Every structure is written in C-alpha cells, then in structure tokens.
Amino acid sequence: MKKLLFVFCFLLPAIGFSQANIRISIDNQEDGTFYFCKYIGAKTFVLDTLMSKNGMIQYKSKTKLPEGIYLIKNDKNYPVTEVLVAKKQRFTVKINDIDNWSTYKVKGCAKETKIYYQLMAKVHETEANIAALESEEGYHPENWKKVDSLKKDLDNFEESLRINKKDAFINTVISSLKRHGMHDYWDDFPLNDARVITYPLIENKLETYFDNLYDDANQINAEIDTLIAKAGDCVAVRDYLLWFFYIKYFNPKYMNLDDVYIHIVDDYFMQLDLPNVTSSMLNIMADRASYLENLKIGAKLPEIGDMYSIEASYIAVVFYDKSCQKCAKEGRILEETHERHPEMVIFPVEINSTDINNLLSKYDIQNTPMIYILDKDKHIIAKRIKAEQVELILNMD
Fold first, then answer.
1. N- to C-terminal Cα distance for the chain?
2. Which of 48, 174, 319, 394 would bridge 36 by S-S if both were Cys, CB 3.0 to 4.6 A apart?
3. Beta strands 104-108; 314-320: pairing state
C-alpha cells in the first residue's frame, strides 16, 4: 500500500501537466478575446479561442503542438503577432512593441523561438534599409553596392543562427529564406520538410515564381513536376503543392494554359490516392479536363445551335445570362466593336435555358459573360477575355 501511495504521489504532479504552455505578454494590450491560429501556407485556421488577462495571452494543451509558426489574432480577426513553436513548448514571450521584433524577449527553454525573433528583427531591419537605398538609386546609382553588402550581411547573419541539432525547425526556416534568382530559385528551399507549409513563405514564393514564368504550358508543367519531385516522400507538401496548382490554373491568367490544368488532373489527381478527394470530385475534375481538350486555343469550338452555318471572318460567341448586368455592359461594348469591325459576327447564347448544365460544362462557363473569339473556320483564337479586349485580338490576328 505504501508503494502504491508513493507511486500515486509521484505521478500526481503530472496529472493535468500541460505539454504546451505558451504565454504572450504584450505591453499596452487591452484584455479581450484572441484566436490562436495555425497556418497552411498563407491561409489561417483557428485552433483555440483565448482570453487575455492583465495583458497576458495564454495557450495551454495537454498535448504538444506540431512544430510550426502560429499566429495570434484579435477579436477583429487582425493579426497581432507570430510565435515559432519547436519541440520546447513551455515558454513566455514578453513584447514591448508588437511592430518591433527586437523588443520580443523569450523566457523559458525555447532556444529556437528566441532565434526566430532575432532572425525576424534582422530581416525586417535589413529589408527596410534596402528599400530606402533602392528608392534613392535614381540620385545615387552607387547604392547598389550598399544593397549588395546588406544582402550578404543578412545571409551571413542567418547562417550564424543555425544550431547544431538534427531536424531543428529554425534551420528549416533559415533555409527557406535563401534568396536566389529564377534559375536556382528552389535550390535551398526544403520542400521535403512538412513544416514549410506552416507559414506563408511557401505560398508567396510559389506565386512569385510561377507569375514570372513565360506563359508556356509545357514549361509550367515541367516546373510543377520538378517541385513535386523535390517534395519526395513528404506527402503533406506534395498535396499542398497539388492543391495550390489546381486552384491557380483552374482559371489561369493566360488563356493558352489549359494544358496545365489537364496535366495536374490527369497525371496527379487521377493517379494518386489523395485525402478528402471523393470519387465524385474526381469525376468532375476528369470531365472538365476532357472538355478542355476540345476548348484549347486552336481547337474547333464544338457546335452550338446554327453557329457552324455562319460565314464570317470572326465570330464572337458570347454566353450570357439575361439577369447579369455585367453581360449587358459587355454586350454593348461588343456591339460597338462590331460596328468598327463588321467582319466579326456576334453569336449570343443564353445560358439560363433547359440545357444549362450541359452548356456550363461543355463550354467551361465558370462565370458570365463568357466570350470565345473564333476564326472563319470556327477555331478558337481567344477565350476568357473581356469585351474591350476583343478589338485588340482582331487587330493582332
């Protein structure tokens, strides 16, 4: 009995012990409701609602948090501050000025969290100095030397913050911050580490990189394949990348990139067993990819009504809805274009008919108005454009 009592007393302090106990104290911060959020790329999701007391915000949990960078928001959904959470999750962050990273002080055994705030302070200070120098380059062309020096100094500082610890999260963050040109943009970015999707940098880099690629579907597909390969066995990053590309190229910025969507669906979504992707979702994706094969630039638009009987140098096929005010406005612009270019015939198609579902899918109508420009042989030369762009297409062709 004494032995049992001793064991019970020994374990008693551990009952209710918090594996995660993160306290954020912010000077001059009014008490109220706050939200403890996780990132998935640039998007945030609320994990817990917190109430501050005497300026102290506290997150407690009996289980550890996954390593990552977390965000504190106020009751107006406005970001307040970030906190890096590594393996050590019992610490206090004392903040004098939330806009000044150098005022963030960490108490407790949280070395990586301390380093993160040092890193952010240096990054923001350097970026501000670089921006000031670059704004004056018109008057001081030699400023590029100072900018180059600041970048090298920042790189050296970041490297000095690395710790000799296997799989340290702060080392992953430092690697992801490496700055490169387009030719080696992803060389140091650790796409095989699931923790890179716990902060917005990956999404910002993806947007920047792919927005600066040429509007060539083959090149974009090759770059997508390269990044998926870099993720390796890291399923979390692979799936994040696939959904990012799927959303980005569902309605691409350029009209000749349908092959990117088709590639993502046919070669990834249809081949992999992805979580939360149902068979009905896959069927919808596959059907759209199939329809897009017939709607690519240069393809002959599937016949609708008596469109094939029209003889004209150009045909503007306009899918519209009578209740759509934007459709009426675009229609007026098209009529004005037709007056200047009588060689173009307008072929309107109302979509609020009994055949609406077939029309929406068969002609990939995501919104109205949807405009296709065809040549005399009914081949697509432009699509998903605004009415004011039609004249430019006619003048270029």
1. 94
2. 48
3. unpaired
Cα–chain-centroid distance for residue 112? 26
Q: What token pair was written down for 122?
A: 């240096």
Point out the least confidently predicted range of 109-123, 319-333, 349-363.
349-363
For residue 7, pLDDT beyond 80: no
With the C-alpha atoms ordered 266, 267, 271, 274, is the resulting torsion angle positive or negative?
Answer: negative
Please tell me the distance from the alpha carbon of residue 131 to that of residue 147, in angstroms, as a whole number.
Answer: 9
Q: Nearest CA to 130 among 152, 153, 146? A: 146
Q: How far is CA 366 from CA 251, 351, 363, in A?
A: 8, 12, 9
The residues near 168 (Cβ < 8 Å, ≥ 6 apart) are: 86, 112, 162
Q: DSSP per residue over 281-300, as a string?
A: HHHHHHHHHHHHHTSSTTSB
Q: How far apart are CA 180 and CA 217, in angstroms?
A: 23
Contact 20, 5 (CB under 8 A): no
Helix (H, G, I), strand (E, B) or coil at 75: coil
CA–CA gap between residue 144 and residue 152 (Å, rounded): 12
CB 331 within 8 A of CB 263: no
CB atoms under 10 Å from CB of 185, counted, come to 16
Distance between CA atoms of 378 and 313, rounded to whole angstroms? 9
Residue 289 near residue 265, CB atoms below 8 Å: yes
C-alpha to C-alpha distance for 268 and 66, rounded to whole angstroms: 27
Q: What is the mean pLDDT of residues 359-363?
A: 84
Q: Going by C-beta distance under 8 Å and a sequence separation of 6 or more, which residues neighbour residue 96?
A: 27, 103, 105
Cα angle 128, 132, 133 (rounded to 5 degrees) comes to 120
Helices (H), 177-251: 201-211, 217-231, 235-248
In total, the chain counts a number of residues equal to 397
